Amino acid sequence: MEGIHAHHCNLNIWAHLPDEVWNKVANIYELMPGWIGYIDGIPHWFGQEEDDVYMQASVEPSGLSFYAQMNQNDWDSWIERFKSEATKVLGFEVGEPEDGFV
Question: Which domain of life does the protein's organism represent (predicted)?
Fold first, then answer.
């Protein structure tokens, strides 16, 4: 059994993008596995901070930021699916700025 670890990822979905883009992002949130909704305005999946497994997102100067506690395989699968869905819906390649995505 694989252990639970902390994971973090920034994506090239920037705070200054228009509301039209952010409305699409909100729709993607709801389609992703584990969606439980907004808690105090913060999108959550799988659980909350007091749970063993959870994920949340926030908009930061570094882009759309995800923080999760889950096993590595589940994290890898989930974040790759989010990037793929976001790329299709938003019309630009979504990825991590440190990997060259701008």
Answer: Bacteria
Residues 6+ apart with CB under 8 A from 92: 12
Domains by residue range for the chain, with CATH: 5-99 (3.30.310)
Residues contacting residue 98 through CB under 8 Å, at least 6 positions apart = 10
pLDDT digits (tens, 9 = 90+) for 47-94: 999 999 999 999 999 899 999 999 999 999 999 999 999 999 999 999
* CA end-to-end distance (rounded Å), the chain: 36
Q: Residue 6 is encoded by which pair of tokens? A: 């902390």
> Binning pLDDT at 50, 70 and 90, where does residue 102 land?
confident
CB 64 within 8 A of CB 25: yes
